[in-house]
Amino acid sequence: MQVCLRLFQNDESGNLMHLLKAEFIMVSRDPLDGTKKVRVHGLTALTPDEADTINRTKEHFRKMGDSANRQLTSEEFRLIHDMYSELVGRSMVHDVAVLSVGIGDLKVAYSGTVPLRLRKIRNFQKSEMWMHKTNLSVTEICFPEYQNMYGKIFGGFLMRKALELAHTNAKLYCKGRVAIRSMDQIEFQKPVEIGHVLHFDSMVTYTEGKYIQVKVAATISDQHKLPELAKLNNPTLGEEARVNTNVFNFTMESVENPSVLRVVPKHYVHTTSYLEGRRLLNNTLKRIV
């Protein structure tokens, strides 16, 4: 089922303002066996508006299940190619990607250490940031007070903790106040049990102007089931066995800084997150701007 919620509130003049829209995807479960799904009644449209709503929802479901929508387009391939060509072109060393810093109208290459000619200049500022440098994490223990009626950790608790981490990360990134503008593509992949050690890892995936796209991934580690978890995700030697449970995507707006640092993926593994964040931010801007 898809359930749509809209929130309205009267302003000081008494006019009704549309503040929020949320769409939830629900799965009906057998009340006697929570592991089984049950079919729900279909909907019949009585008006053209209702028919249009149902058709748009069917199209939404179709796109969600279509793997082609997750594949890179030719335009995105060119974007990544041009971006890395620019990064490598700044370096005097072959195949070494470097960032740039700005001093007024002057831009120079920056690879992680201050160039010799800039060491006497105190007010240089970065204009770009590597994506992996934006990582911010927090760990929680799941107590019974956070459980829902089915004995699992309440989804609202997970969303709140992810939002708090994303808000903190965005605030640190732009060094100022931020406001949340959108929550998109929130996925509940696996239930979280009481007693699990819950890890939240956030990363800035895309920026444009004053807007910041932040992705938060939730994983669990159970000390009593480490061998089982290790078989599921094949961790490398020395790493803790974890399993992904949730993914959250947030669009933040910098309130005080009209132009935030440009985030850049240094490693290929991050380019997918970069392009996914770009898609989400562009979709958000179409709705709110």
Automatic annotation (TrEMBL):
Domain HotDog ACOT-type: 132-258
GO molecular function, one term: fatty acyl-CoA hydrolase activity
GO CC terms: mitochondrion
Single GO BP term: acyl-CoA metabolic process
InterPro entries recorded: HOTDOG_ACOT, HotDog_dom_sf
Keywords noted in UniProt: Hydrolase, Repeat, Transit peptide
Family per similarity comment: Belongs to the acyl coenzyme A hydrolase family.
PANTHER family listed in its UniProt record: ACYL-COA THIOESTERASE, ACYL-COENZYME A THIOESTERASE 9, MITOCHONDRIAL
Name of protein: HotDog ACOT-type domain-containing protein
Source organism (scientific name): Caenorhabditis tropicalis
Lineage summary: Eukaryota, Metazoa, Ecdysozoa, Nematoda, Chromadorea
